[in-house]
Amino acid sequence: MAREIYVVGNWKMNHTLDTCTSFWDDLEGEDFHPNVRAGIAPAMPLLHISERKSTAPIDVYAQNCHEASSGAYTGESSAAMLKSIGITGVILGHSERREIYHESDALILAKMKHALSADLQVIYCCGEPLDIRKAGAQNDYIKDQLEASLLPLDVDQLAQVCIAYEPIWAIGTGETASAQQAQDMCAHIRSLCTEKYGKEAADKLHILYGGSVKPANAQEIFSQTDVDGGLVGGASLDSGSYMELLQIAGKLME
Ligand code: PGA
Fold it and tell me: What's the pTM value of the predicted model, to 2 decimals?
């Protein structure tokens, strides 16, 4: 079955108001294929760019949210706050959040449940480190990650989730997984979801690849059967290369 292709830019801690605004200016009036879902996840202070949705059909995502709806949590933002300013969804489980901020699977699951209950979409990230890949243990590692922080969701919750497989060794390193490695893992993830949720739900699921996606390799990666687009860091910072990625995705949809 035909799924949409997502091209979501994870800007991490990059861009300021000026450069963010000119990025949106550059994309203004651009036409994307209707089955390409364009998204950008800017840092918290730039999320209000979502108000410009009408000028370029780009969904705006947050890079994090708290697991409680309100309270004494200095520096944090709740899913309801994000929803109230027109944010489409939130990236959770990113390896940088897991590693640098010690986010556990239990915390990620709590954040996911909270975000989903506020009607935000979740882009749930998983991925193995290099030593696990070298040992050939990546399938079991991802299974454990999913069992701890994704598969406890019910099938209705899953319908609001998009999964991003991001091997840690390929993030920001310039080293991309091969298209075959991306396909194999995305197929593995889909089969784990089939076991838990059934074929119909798993077939509808969007599974993205992330890790040094750029215009030079996107076509091969996005054309894999079980890969439904990309979560893109570095190559999404520049409007020209982000636009190229959208065009590559659009051609695959024709
Ligand atoms: P990268 O980042 O494209 O710069 O490797 C991807 C990500 O961390 O989401």
Answer: 0.97
